[in-house]
Amino acid sequence: MTLDVSDMWGLAGKSIVVMGAGGGGIGSAICRHLGNAGATIVAADIDADKLAICTDDLEANGISHIGLLADGRDKDAVADVVERACSLAPLRGSVQVAGGMWPPQWAPFVSEDAAFDDVMALNFGSTVNTVRAVGRKLVEQGNGGSIVNIATVSALNAMPYGSAYAAAKAAVLSLTRSLAVEWGSRQIRLNAVAPGSIATPKSASTRKPGDTDGNDLEVIPMRRRGTSDDIASAVLFMMSDLANYVTGQVLCVDGGTSIRPAVNDRDELPVFVHNEELRARLADW
């Protein structure tokens, strides 16, 4: 018997809001994965040109969708996006991708950092607005649903000079866990995906032209940077019926970065192991 993939995911005939869909990075990949699994995608972004990159891709792949310009920090704009989604098909839930921090916003915490509040508003405030608007509709529908928030592994440990971003995403994780309990009896699941180092058009802003990963990969156990599709696959699982009994969880998609011991060297041996015979024996497998 041939299994219908759409039936396996449980997303066919449902609408899903993706906030921060544009740009050809993580949000765009999430839209494509969820759309290929049968969902109708409501792709929202603040930037018209970036949104077009996403919607053009969805169009080329024959995915049912609409694209909407909206700022996740604007409660009314978010509410309008959710209403549009409900007008297309029963609402399954949402993915909150909008966020990040640009190089000019990196700063020592002791400085007069005017961007701190902006980073918090974009990464946490937009999540609050989206989750609240979507949650209200899911409660109204009475059929449960799924919400996936994009966090970062930095929310689980630290991010020097980027404390606003780490703190905002840590708040996202706390909100995700709290609402997973609060809304569990309504069969509304909330989970988070925490990316590590992911190669996207946005992440290229921290690199100089022609730059390569070089020694960067030494701190990633899998020795490669992640892709937008790596994150989208995790989101698809969390959004789908395959994760029907999963809620309040954080799935790190980071090639093992978050569990790598800080004392390991490039050979993944503790820096305090100096015995060459022992090092050779451990490395020779």
From TrEMBL:
GO terms for molecular function: oxidoreductase activity, acting on the CH-OH group of donors, NAD or NADP as acceptor. InterPro entries: NAD(P)-bd_dom_sf (IPR036291), SDR_fam (IPR002347). Pfam families: adh_short_C2. Belongs to the short-chain dehydrogenases/reductases (SDR) family. This is Unannotated protein. The lineage of its organism: unclassified sequences, metagenomes, ecological metagenomes.
